[in-house]
Amino acid sequence: MFTCNYRELRLSFNEFHEIGGGNMPEYDEFCLLELKDGRFTAGRWMPDDYKDKSSVSGEFIRGTADTVGSGEVLRWHSLVRYDLSNCLEDAEINYINLGPEKEDAYTALFENFKSLKDGDFPKSEQYCLLLLTDGGMAGGRWDQLEDDEGLFIYAPALASYDMDKVWAWTALSPDDIFEAEEEQERERKHEEELNRNPSVDPVKFKYGLDIDVYYEMACQKLRGEYPWASVAQMKKRTPWEIVPCHGQYVFGQTTTIYKGRSFVSEWKDGTDADEFIDFLCEYAREAVKDSNPGEKFKYGLDIAVYLDMAYENVRKDYRWLEKGMLEKTWRYDIRQVDGDWEFVRFFKKEKDFTLCDCSSAEQFIESVEYDYQSAALQANPAVAVYAVPFGHVEVHGWNLERYEFEKLKTGDYKVFVQAGDRVTGGSRAFFITPDCFEADTYEAFLDRYLKIVPGVSFGIFKEDLLQNDDLKQFLGY
């Protein structure tokens, strides 16, 4: 590791370029930036027209949804054209010039470097100048993951420098994102102080501070219409709590947001306890209505009955399907949970399970059918693949990346579709059911196929596939 003392190190940047001076960064070059308001930040240059190297129209990208427009920037200085390794390996050096010092050159000096290994971490969302362990320089926004862990985000899709890639850092100027984070932290601490001794409204909480008391009273009312009603069924929708908020107890729903922070949505549709109980009845009505055990378990409490029905339905098309294929991934059971019978799903022999949110036996069987289908496709490897050629295809804001037909070991076919943008994406496989191949012509096949993989949803239409002789031959027509 470098022997230079980062605590005493100062960097002098002497090769700044004015924006609009005919000397712009290279496409995707990472730069130190001085803004017109005197603050410093950094970012990757993305011109609107990458072919025009002199264009000043564009933005400097700092991270996901985090950019600085070129109109905000006064001057820039490259960070990627320098390697500081030789200097940082000299224990005597504490001052480094980046570019020759000149009387008429604009200079910016940075110091007060710290090390993550010393336990010195930036504040949340603070943008920093980084000295990397490979001798390079960069910038990044600190993302605190845990008390002693984090990373520096520097590009879209959360591209980041891990802690072990950063030798030393110093904070750059505060920006809107950092200041918003600081304001949220002040508000959080203020809220904590207010909630140390919350007040109690005697009218709103005349039945006490146990939320289950209010649920039980609402449940008794619902049983007049739905005899099977239970508190557990009522709580299938996001449950209500009695929690402190702004210095007083309220009926509210607590939502955990980014990095474990919580947000309370307060009930404001009334002012007293009985009004809240009436509200609970209406709020939970659908959840209770959909929990009718007579509809849900109309075929009894033997899970094998439901699994057999799903298996037989799927096997009509997935002819190679075997019951053991599903057991390699998901298992199902009917168990009592908080006093109510429920369909549950769990992985192999693990004890942890999730409730299947199904209001009827038919709905549960359909969900098992989907899992059977997925298990069958996983057990049937592809022996040949044909990738459909296409140009730029945008699908509801996402760009189509893959559209591939696969011939499976059994002679059946599926199609794999993948799309995404700069931040996220997704993929899905579709089985091409045998009835599609019962069509006499390729065109008739496409009419049936596109009901499974519609063009409006996935960007490839009938006219795109009809004239494709290679695909026609791949599918056996």
Report on the structure:
- Helix content is 26%, strand content 31%.
- It has 13 helices and 25 strands.
- It has helices spanning 85-88, 176-194, 211-222, 231-234, 273-289, 293-296, 303-315, 323-327, 361-378, 442-452, 455-458, 462-466, 469-474; strands spanning 10-13, 17-18, 30-35, 40-47, 58-63, 66-69, 73-78, 95-98, 108-110, 127-132, 137-146, 149-155, 159-162, 166-171, 241-245, 248-256, 262-266, 330-337, 340-347, 354-355, 382-387, 394-395, 398-408, 413-420, 425-432.
- The strands form six sheets. A six-stranded antiparallel beta sheet has the order 2-7-3-4-5-6, with no helix packed on it. Strands 13-12-11-10-14 form a five-stranded antiparallel beta sheet, with no helix packed on it.
- The radius of gyration is 31 Å and the shape is flat.
- The N and C termini lie far apart (64 Å).
- The model has no long low-confidence stretch (mean pLDDT 92).
What are the SSEs and their pairings?
Elements: E1 10-13, E2 17-18, E3 30-35, E4 40-47, E5 58-63, E6 66-69, E7 73-78, H1 85-88, E8 95-98, E9 108-110, E10 127-132, E11 137-146, E12 149-155, E13 159-162, E14 166-171, H2 176-194, H3 211-222, H4 231-234, E15 241-245, E16 248-256, E17 262-266, H5 273-289, H6 293-296, H7 303-315, H8 323-327, E18 330-337, E19 340-347, E20 354-355, H9 361-378, E21 382-387, E22 394-395, E23 398-408, E24 413-420, E25 425-432, H10 442-452, H11 455-458, H12 462-466, H13 469-474
Can you give me a brief rundown of this structure?
The protein has 13 helices and 25 strands. By secondary structure, the chain is an alpha+beta fold.
